[in-house]
Amino acid sequence: MRRILVVIVVALLAGGCGSTPRARGTPHAAKDATLVLDFTPNAVHAGIYSAVARGYDRDEGIRLHVIAPPASSTSLALLQAGRADFAILDIHDLAIADERGEGVVGIMALVQRPLAAVIAAPQIHNPRELQGHTVGVTGVPSDEAALSSIVAGAGGDPRRVNTVTIGFDAVAALLSRRVAAATAFWSDEGVTLAHRRPGFHVFRVDEYGAPSYPELLLCAKRSTFQAQPSVARAVVRALVRGYGLTVRDPARSETDLETKAPGLDGDLLDAKLRAVMPAFPAPDGTFGELNSVRLRAWARWEAAVGIVRKPPVLPKLFDPSFLPGAGVRS
Fold this sequence. Notes:
This protein has 330 residues and is an alpha/beta fold. It has two domains: 6-113 and 214-329, D-Maltodextrin-Binding Protein, domain 2; 116-207, 3-Layer(aba) Sandwich (D-Maltodextrin-Binding Protein, domain 2), CATH 3.40.190.10. The protein has helices at residues 6-14, 46-53, 56-59, 74-80, 91-99, 141-153, 170-175, 189-196, 222-227, 229-248, 250-260, 266-276, 292-304, 314-317, and strands at 21-22, 30-36, 62-67, 86-90, 104-109, 116-120, 134-137, 162-165, 181-185, 201-204, 216-221, 290-291, 328-329. The longest helix is centred in the last third of the chain and has 20 residues, at 229-248.
């Protein structure tokens, strides 16, 4: 599922991914900006595609080019290599990159809660019951941490759970009964499994001891937005409008996504969008919020479960100044 034709990426990147001015018949020419996704286009990206389809990017004086990575692990690499100006990153990948001193910063949240979960076979009714069974993990460091947190949060012993690396094939591994459970996103694989074969149990990480945190973030290199703050602000404002449309009119936003990223299963996309849509707005109805209280709790948890060695320094890792109204809540 997490595959995309590399030729599409190459063609779009070759088409220009800096902030080069491009005339559009207005007094101020639009600036090009490239955004690489974390994953194959899916429901969580609906607001991004609506921002482009509805011209919100051009309203802000930019022309946003959205590309999907050949693999989920390459988004950060494309950002670091200067082949993309912005990237959607998992918050755990951002924390690890920060620990390596890579100078990448989160400037907007796409969702306001974790998407990570353990999805278990119908006969597994509680994470404690995974003791003695085999759980599939993708191989990324945060998977083991999420699994351990969920099992421990249910009163089990994570050391008694066996793991096997299955990459991003959770759906196939579970349907074939290769594993008793797998780490995945409840908003994606969880919905797919419910659509394909009802009865699987979804154990969300924030329901078993983890704090609520924004799983996916719009990120940029600090050097990029310091050199072009107006471009970063324009991208954020366009996406805030895009996600606003998604929540107000999901059918239109779904059409935007299907038009810009053809080949998606319409029925499945509709189910995924309905599942994830409540995670887009903050409690006060705003979009993109980086809540300092939640982020402090996440930083402590991130270190406690071993994803990073010590809690990330929030002012170094996040910059909410590009959000409308500063976008910060304490």
